[in-house]
Amino acid sequence: MTVLFHLSDLHFGPKFNAHLSELILQDVRDAKPDLTILSGDFTMRGRVSEYEQARAYIEKLPKPIFTIPGNHDQPLYPGAMWERATTPWARYMRYINATVDASIETRDVFVVGVNSNHRIVPGGIWSASQRRWVEQEFLRASRDACKIFVTHHHLDWMNKYRPFGQWFPTAHLNWLKSLGVELILNGHTHVPLTTQTAQGIVIAQAGTSMSTRVRHGHGNAYNRIVIEPHALTVQVMAFDEQADRFEQRSEKTFSRQRIQEQLS
Ligand SMILES: [Fe+2]
Ligand SMILES: [Fe+2]
Q1: What CATH code is assigned to 2-263?
Q2: Ligand 1 center to residue 210 CA distance, Å?
Q3: Domain assignments of the chain as residue spans, ordered by start
Q4: Band of the pLDDT at 161, cuts 50, 70, 90?
C-alpha cells in the first residue's frame, strides 16, 4: 500500500493562511506518507521573499517530496518582467527544485510531472519535447507500478471558462491513456474534484491547501490518496472551521482492474 499526500496552490505571499499551513504540516508529519506531491503555485507573484518562505516550509515536510511549478511561480510584478521574459523558472529552480519537469519512483508508483505553464499564453501547454520525455520516463516504470501524471493545469474544465485549463484536454487524455496513466493530479482551480474521465483515467484535483483565495464556494483542502494493488482511493481532506482541523470530506475508491480494462 502506498499513501500519497497531494497539496496544491500553497501561494506564499498575500492571502497566505499560516495557521492552515501549520495544521497541514502536522497532518503530513503524523501520516508519514510514502510521497508528498505539490502540484504548483508555491507563491503568489514569484517574489524572492515568497520563495524563501516556501522553501522554509518545504524543508519542514517529511521526505520524499515531488514538485512541479504553477503559473504563479513565474515572477509577475513591475521590476521583474525582464526576468519573466528571459528566465521565468530561475527562482523555482533555485528555491524549489533543480528541474521544472520531474519524475520519481517509489515502491508501487511511478510519477511523472511536467511544467504546464507559459509566460504569455493563459492556461496550460506543454511542448513536443516534454511529451517525448514523458513517454520515455513512463517506459521505465515497472509492470505493476501505478502510473501517475502530475500537471498544474486541469484537464477537466468543469464547464468553467476560468481559470484557463490545459489546452486540447481530450487529445492529452487520449495520449495519457495510451501511456497507461491511471491517475492524474493537478491543482490551479482551487476547487477539489475527484472524477474519472471517459478514457478511464482518475483525476484527483486538489483545492488550495493554504491560501484564502478560495473559489466557487469551496474552502481549503488537500488530497490523501491510497494506492493498493487492486484499488485506488482518493480522500478529500477539507478544513472544518468549527473543529479547526482538516477532516475527510469525501472518499472515492476505484478498482484498478477496471481502470486498466478501460485503458487497454
Ligand atoms: Fe493557484
Ligand atoms: Fe495556478
Answers
A1: 3.60.21.10
A2: 10
A3: 2-263
A4: confident
Cα–ligand 2 centroid distance for 230 (angstroms): 32
Residue bearing cell 515497472: 142
Query: What ligand is nearest to the CA atom of residue 69?
Result: 2
Question: How far away, in angstroms, is 214 Cα from ligand 1 center?
Answer: 9
Q: Does the reported pTM lie above 0.90?
A: yes
> DSSP labels for 44-88?
SS--HHHHHHHHHHHHHSPSPEEE---GGGS--STT-HHHHHH-T
| Residue pLDDT, tens place only, 103-154 | 999 989 999 999 999 999 999 999 999 999 999 999 999 999 999 999 999 9
SS3 211: strand
**Ligand 2 centroid vs 142 CA: distance in angstroms?**
32
CA of 92 to the centre of ligand 2 (A): 14
pLDDT digits (tens, 9 = 90+) for 208-240: 999 999 888 899 999 999 999 999 999 999 999
